[in-house]
Design a protein that fits this description.
- This protein is α/β, with parallel strands linked by helices and 97 residues long.
- 34% of the residues lie in helices and 14% in strands.
- The chain has three helices and three strands; from the N terminus they run βαβααβ.
- The protein has a three-stranded parallel beta sheet with strand order 1-2-3, with helices on one face.
- The longest helix is centred in the C-terminal third of the chain and has 14 residues, at 60-73.
- The model is unreliable at 79-85 (pLDDT under 50).
C-alpha cells in the first residue's frame, strides 16, 4: 500500500499528527516501537493546551469517558487510557528492534 505520510512515533506528538493528516484525507502510516496500549507515564498528564487541543479536535469527551470507564473498572488505573486508532485512514504498526 502507498501512504501519503509516514509518522514515526505514535505517542503524544505523532498520534495527533497522524490524526490531523488523516482527517484532511491523507493515507497515513504511524509506526512505533511499542505495542499499544502501553502504560507510559510521560503521556498521563494533560496540561491546559493539551486539553484545549483535544476539545478542538473533538476528542475531549471520548478521553474523559475512557478515563471514567477505566477508573470505574479499576480505581488504581487512574490516568490509563487505551490508545485505539479510530480513523480508518490511520494504520498503527508496532516496530520491533
Amino acid at each position: 500500500m502507498n501512504y501519503d505520510a509516514i509518522v514515526i512515533g505514535a505517542r503524544a506528538a505523532g498520534s495527533p499528527t497522524a490524526m490531523l493528516l488523516a482527517r484532511n484525507g491523507h493515507d497515513v502510516l504511524a509506526v512505533d516501537r511499542a505495542n499499544f496500549p502501553s502504560d507510559t507515564l510521560s503521556t498521563h498528564v494533560l496540561h491546559a493546551p493539551g486539553v484545549a487541543a483535544l476539545k478542538r479536535w473533538g476528542l475531549l469527551d471520548a478521553v474523559i469517558e475512557s478515563v471514567v470507564a477505566a477508573v470505574a473498572k479499576d480505581p488504581t488505573a487512574i490516568g490509563y487510557v487505551e490508545q485505539v486508532p479510530t480513523n480508518p485512514n490511520v494504520k498503527v504498526v508496532p516496530v520491533t528492534k
